[in-house]
Amino acid sequence: MDRFLKGEEQEQTRRKGATLGEDEGCPRKRPRGETPGNATRLAVPNWRHIRAEGLDCDYMVLFGKAEADEIFQQLEEKVEYFAGALARVQVFGKWHNVPRKQATYGDAGLTYTFSGLTLSPKPWIPVLERVRDRVSGLTGQTFNFVLVNRYKDGRDHIGEHRDDERELAPRSPIASVSFGACRDFCFRHKDSRGKSPRRRLEVVSLQLAHGSLLMMNHPTNAHWYHSLPVRKRVLAPRINLTFRKILPKK
Ligand SMILES: O=C(O)CCC(=O)C(=O)O
């Protein structure tokens, strides 16, 4: 999980491609690749299926506004974020603050690598268990770890990266649950990065609403980088929870 503190160069992902999202100020446009009603997996009403070459995601609004507001408030009160060295990142020899706040929670006995250190997540707290159990009840997937990212406003962001750490259970999905400000979320294919990309696949751009769930299914993370770009017009905070299954160390 080193990359949570690395590669923080700002990725001003262009808002190419189509967008998704309709709640809490997210204007609704159907993304290319979304195939309502014809997917066999997660064939529950209200799922939107987002597909592109090697990209397999499902999106829905999981919590209504009142419940999402309550969860957001509890997260604000209960989550304890990293401080000190864990909230800083060294890029080309220079130290910077990570442009968001982060925390990890999970099962007892788990360890993971963060900024070159072997750490244990904090024990689960009720608000995180509540969200985790809702996602598990809906999807049938289990999770033993969550990364919490808090963005104080649209200047906070996360650069392009893949969640392809060795610690993740192979082929396991990542469940991303968002509360607070609606933010753009972009996928870029690995062959379409850099100044002279090998291929020019369109960026897949979503909007993640208050109370929403985005399931990032295998093999998305093998082929696509994702980011939460800077959006200076966003003034409100947002908290994102990514539930993961990580392998216990032998
Ligand atoms: O805040 C978000 O939606 C993105 C978080 C993310 O990219 C991650 O946890 O890997």
TrEMBL record:
Residues engaged in binding 2-oxoglutarate: 149, 151, 161, 226, 238, 242, 244
GO biological process: DNA alkylation repair
Keywords on record: Dioxygenase, DNA damage, DNA repair, Iron, Magnesium, Metal-binding, Nucleus, Oxidoreductase
SUPFAM superfamilies attached to this UniProt entry: Clavaminate synthase-like
Family affiliation: Belongs to the alkB family.
EC category: oxidoreductase
Binding site for substrate: 92-94, 112-114, 164
Family matches, as Pfam families: 2OG-FeII_Oxy_2
Any one Gene Ontology cellular component term annotated for this protein: nucleolus
Comp. bias regions, Basic and acidic residues: 1-14
Name used for this protein in its record: DNA oxidative demethylase ALKBH2
Keyword Magnesium annotated: yes
Taxonomic path: Eukaryota, Metazoa, Chordata, Craniata, Vertebrata
Region Disordered: start-end pairs: 1-40
Cofactor(s) needed for function: Fe(2+)
Principal localisation: nucleus
MF (Gene Ontology): broad specificity oxidative DNA demethylase activity; cytosine C-5 DNA demethylase activity; ferrous iron binding; rDNA binding
Subcellular localization(s) per the UniProt record: Nucleus, Nucleolus; Nucleus, Nucleoplasm
Name of the gene: ALKBH2
Gene3D superfamilies, sorted: Alpha-ketoglutarate-dependent dioxygenase AlkB-like
